[in-house]
Amino acid sequence: MSTTNERQQELAIDMKAGMDYDELMNCMRCGFCLPSCPTYRESGGNEAASPRGRIALMKAVVDGIMEPDEDFEKQLSLCLGCRACEPACPSGVKYGHLLEAARDIIQKKKKHSLPVRMVRSLVFNQLFPKPNRMRTVSSLLWFYQKTGIQKIAQATHLTKIAPGNLSIMEKVLPQVPSPSQLKNRPTHVAAEGKVKQKVAFFSGCLMDTMFMDTNDATLFILSKSNCEIVIPEKQNCCGALHAHSGEKDGAKALAKENILAFENVKADFIVSNAGGCGALLVEYGHLLKDDPEWAERAKVFSARVKDISEILLAVGMPKMVLDEQIVTYQDSCHLRNVMGTFSAPRRLLQQIEGVTFTEMKDADRCCGSAGVYNIIEQEMSMQILDVKMEQAKATKARTLVTANPGCLLQMKLGIERAGLQKDVRAVHIVDLLAEAVKKGE
Amino acid sequence: MIHQDAKKKFTAIVGEVNYLDSKQSLVAYSYDATPNYQALPDAVIKPRNTKEVSEIVKVCNEYKIPIVPRGNATNLCAGTCPLEGGLVMIFTLMNEIIELDEENLTVTVQPGLITLDMINAVEAKGLFYPPDPSSMKISTIAGNINEGSGGLRGLKYGVTRDYVIALEVVLPNGNIIRTGGKLAKDVAGYDFTRLMVGSEGTLGIITEATFKLIPKPETKKTMLALYDSLEAAGRTVSKIIANKIIPTTLEFLDQPTIRVVEDFAKIGLPTDVGAVLLIEQDGPLEVVERDIKRMAEICQEENALSVQIAQTDEEGTALTTARRSALSALARLKPTTILEDATVPRSKIAEMVREIEVIAKRNNVQICTFGHAGDGNLHPTCMTDARDKEEMHRVEKAFEEIFEKAIQLGGTITGEHGVGVMKSPYLAWKLGEEGVEAMKTLKMAFDPNNIMNPGKMFAKETRKRVVVSR
Ligand SMILES: Cc1cc2nc3c(=O)[nH]c(=O)nc-3n(C[C@H](O)[C@H](O)[C@H](O)COP(=O)(O)OP(=O)(O)OC[C@H]3O[C@@H](n4cnc5c(N)ncnc54)[C@H](O)[C@@H]3O)c2cc1C
Ligand code: SF4
Ligand code: SF4
């Protein structure tokens, strides 16, 4: 028997043991989720590339109808994990949980080549979960260029990265703060006026390094809106990248650290300003549901998490002004589909004087960024992105707003690809709000 | 297994990329929305036009390869489950609107077009296509035609059958025929158009369809009436019709269904009432207002607990959308959801629903009922778990009793979902042995090699009528 066959058999056994069969059965195969799925649409209506199809494939593996062959792994890998299928599902199937579980099982059985192992270990073990390293590695940009990820990628065909795209990627990365800026992060910010709300800020790993300006802007507008902010020092990366890449154990470990960090902080809410992080934070309850010591604590933690836009809308913003312009908004999938936040950011943008808010067609559809999807599944990602750019262009917007760092980079990449750099800019919503507050003063 | 020569011929017709036989593709096209049915085809094929369909069918006929035409597999009778293997034929590459004829008020489309896409295109021109199955967001036109699908507006406007006026069909021998036309009057020979409606892919493959359209109603109003008893709701239905009002929509939900729908849609439905009627009228403003007012009075006269008229379009849409999600919302309760569509004359609705309750209790199974009160089309829906063989047996028994009762009351075994595999054992209950025999003769005349969706509609074994002890 060949080794691939053995591996597939082992994988099948693990899938049988590890997948939630009730959840697989809960899919009644009504097909209501199909129209909302980007990969289904972009594949010209391929059932296997749809949520209903992928659930059927997972179930077929568990039922022993199908081997977990390479095609199967590819199909799961092609899924963006955008979870647009979940709000569309009247049966309430937790597709995201099924996908994460399957990817986790596949990942554990995977025999990566040495360079891939090195990169994964660097990213998942050495870098993201180590706040100090995130900081001392003075920037991700540095990481991209100096660790030779580009060379490894090319040498191993790990990513199928077209060199052209990588160089655009580098162009769209933000200006990175200096190491000294990175060292002196605040732990408490007072409200400017009378305290309306006391919040604990989840600062994130990428957000607190590469996107530090956005975090500073967040603290600025929270304070301007009379929120008192605590920023627990012991917090860590949220673990979303781990969870979505099948590194569930890593994600769990990080979740526990964060629960500990926030548990005794007296605050009404835990604020997140990145859709991708927030969505995992609200799912800690699910992530740790089988851990008796942590399940309840995780649930309590998750219940306190709120997106920045919801908080700002509730407490009220100071006067905001911008130059006359059209602004449009691209939903962060996880913010919308998992956290359920979609009207708050739009309403905030509408409150800015001078701004004409124009909704773009299919704003709720994934932009193709999806964690590291745009690197791993580059072809599909770029296909999705180019459609998105057409739709953004049609709004005639000068500013394209997002609510998650991954989406922001992807939008910037899209703008470059479409040659719109002169007319359109992409910004994180809190950066735009901060800009508008300053101009309104 | 598909013969190598046949495969070569297929790929020569549609090209390598449109012939799929990886394990993954076979699994992905092995099921439809019917619980508990799954069978792998031998291959999946995507024709690009009528000519290719015809050529494929000729090869199938030569090699006796079964063909299962598949829309988007939302049917609930296992109609697209490839029980005998063969080719699943999908129409994702044939989904265009061919012509929207505003002079003749018709629209001509390809089979794979999504129902809602057609409705949107038509409404953009101020026209109206009334059939609106709850699955329209994803169901295809050819699927609708082949199941004879109905929807919430069926009471006033009729169902798919009432709007199909012309078809292009590839027969099982590969011949291409055209039936009907853009004509209001046409009696040239047998009515093949009507014959194809509801034929469930057993007589031929539809490759083009023309529908008649009507002007879009100017206004629409929705209201919701709550009752503490089902009888009162039933009486309201009869009285509305007796008052010579035909509302667009007259839907009802029983109590367990209300609870689940509210849990899903969160639109503020009260969960402690006995039954809910969802009523809609459309047309000129004066007529709509007059009818809604009168119907509200009738609801009050029949002791409705409350009558609430939606103030805005959004409110109205929220109510109908919630009703549309009833089936899927019920699916949240248990892993397996089995939905039937027994239909009775509308005067018998309350009696039928009561009987369903009794039958469910007697067999110790959980059944919720909702449906189209206006046309007597009920959806008794059973929440169960297919892994529990013993319970599944009781579920089957309960449904048998429900069909039995429906027929006793002058009804039928299926009002809109079709016979497929699910209800084939019961077809003779409705048609009689002679009726089934006549239908089989017809099928054999069209398809002597039985390649078109074999195993559907006609069961290998007909269910003997159960004797229900009372
Ligand atoms: C949640 C839910 C709600 C539903 N609500 C309703 C409702 O309100 N009213 C209603 O009537 N039904 C309803 N249905 C049932 C189903 O959606 C309809 O029967 C629908 O018309 C099927 O369309 P489809 O495109 O999915 O066809 P499929 O399920 O793919 O096929 C249906 C039949 O058509 C045949 N067929 C498909 N294409 C062709 C072709 N080109 N030529 C010949 N034969 C073909 C197939 O062989 C099969 O027998 C519902 C189903 C679900 C899951
Ligand atoms: S909408 Fe939900 S139940 Fe329906 S097919 Fe998709 S996942 Fe399954
Ligand atoms: S998560 Fe997104 S890409 Fe994946 S199946 Fe759901 S809708 Fe499709």
CATH architecture of the largest domain in chain B: 2-Layer Sandwich
- Please state roughly what percent of the residues of chain B sit in beta strands, choosing from under 5%, 5-15%, 15-25%, 25-35%, 35-45% or over 45%: 15-25%
**Name of the top-level CATH class of the largest domain in chain A:** Alpha Beta
The domain tally of chain B reads 4
> Based on the structure given, which CATH architecture of the largest domain in chain A is correct?
3-Layer(aba) Sandwich
Helicity of chain B, as a percent range: 25-40%
What is the β-strand count of chain B? 18
- What is the general shape of chain A? globular
Q: Which strand order spans the largest sheet of chain A, edge to edge or round the barrel?
A: 1-3-2-4-5
Number of strands of chain A: 9
Radius of gyration over C-alpha positions of chain B, nearest whole angstrom: 23 Å
Report the sheet with the most strands of chain A, covering strand number, pairing sense and barrel closure.
Answer: 5 strands, mixed
Low-confidence segments of chain B: 466-470
Backbone structural class of chain B: alpha+beta
Oligomeric status: heterodimer
Residue stretches of chain A low in confidence (pLDDT < 50, at least 5 long) are 158-163
EC number (chain A): 1.1.99.14
Cofactor (chain A): [4Fe-4S] cluster
InterPro entries (chain A): 4Fe4S_Fe-S-bd, 4Fe4S_Fe_S_CS, Cys_rich_dom, Glc_ox_4Fe-4S, Helical_ferredxn
Catalytic activity (chain A): (R)-lactate + A = pyruvate + AH2; glycolate + A = glyoxylate + AH2
